[in-house]
Amino acid sequence: MVSLCTRYLSLDQAGLVDELVASRELATVEAIGEAELRAAVQELDCSTTIINKQTEMLRQHHNALAKLADSNAKSTESRREMEATRTTHRVIKYTVEMTRTKLDRTYLEALESAPRSEHTDAPASEVKALQEELESLYAEILPVAQMSVEQQYLEPALKSLSEKNGQSVGRSMAAISYSYQAAAATLVDTAKMELAVPAVAVAPKKAHPVQPASPPRARVTTSTPGPRRRRSSGTFNVEPPIEALLRLLTINLATSSADPSDGPTLLETLRVLSRAREGRAAKAYDVTRNAQESFEHFGCDAPHRRPTRSAAAFETAFLLRLSFEERSESSLTLKSNAS
């Protein structure tokens, strides 16, 4: 069924449909059977089932990718916190050693500068008290230095890392979510267009009222074209492909005339489609730039991972933009052919 419709579409684009219809006697054409209609419906059901499976697979991939991004962000954050903690411990160690060295130097300089005499007037209790105070001062150097360095360096560093990681994870999740939505929308649009292929032949109906919507249904309209054609259209209940494509792209072609039955002209349609294409191309460019900035910022501290993540980000953005441009060009081509 789909192959016949594809063949009919190629003949219609080549302009051979009218010649073939004029050269054949429709009364001698064999009518399509109910078995063929059932086979076509079963084929469409199978296509729908496959599309649903692919959608579920995309959803699972999206969940797995989100978990992977979350775990990667957590591991990166923990690694940076560990590096900041190690650096702070080194600073504490060096500060304590420097303070003790200064105290020792001051003590030695004081001993050298003090006058030497055989008899001292200081009592033994006072000397012992000074020694105990000096020893207690040595013991308090480590906790005081640790507290000072942590408040001065470690806490601001951890706070800055937390803010940067939160922004990076937010941007990454937004880019992943948009990529998933765009891929799912592209798959659904392709499936719907494939299901709507039997209604492609509705366009020549204005020039030839007796001509059916598709070759199989044309064989049904041999003896009584009117009633049988209404029954076939009621069976499938489809809409023209151009309107279906514009509805899937969420593009509203508002008519400027007072009569709602008069559709928009070709020039108005091309203008609306051109504006929609420019707007969505700008949106795709913004998403590409945001994804690039996010992955560059996310991989700034891991240079050995940056090329892979940047390449993946550029590839995803390029595929999304290419898909959007192909859909826009196909919509313009179909509208021109239908007119």
Mean pLDDT across residues = 69
Low-confidence stretches: 199-236, 256-260, 301-310
Spell out the helices and strands N to C: HHHHHHHHH
**Count of helices?**
9
Helix content: over 70%
Termini separation: 25 Å
Given helix and strand content, the structural type is mainly alpha
Biggest sheet, open or closed, and with what strands and sense?
none
The number of strands is 0
Radius of gyration: 39 Å
Based on Cα principal axes, name the global outline. rod-shaped
- Strand proportion, as a percent range, falls in under 5%
Region (Disordered): 205-236
What report would you give on this structure?
This protein has 339 residues and is mainly alpha-helical. Among the domains are: 1-30, no CATH class; 31-114 and 124-188, no CATH class. The protein is 77% helix and 0% strand. The chain is built from 9 helices and no strands. Helix 3 (34-113) runs antiparallel to helix 4 (124-195) and helix 4 (124-195) packs parallel to helix 9 (306-338). The radius of gyration is 39 Å and the shape is rod-shaped. The protein starts with a helix and ends with a helix. The model is unreliable at 199-236, 256-260 and 301-310 (pLDDT under 50).
Give keywords.
9 helices; mainly alpha; single chain; 339 residues
Describe the secondary-structure layout.
Blueprint: H1 2-14, H2 17-23, H3 34-113, H4 124-195, H5 215-218, H6 225-236, H7 241-248, H8 266-298, H9 306-338
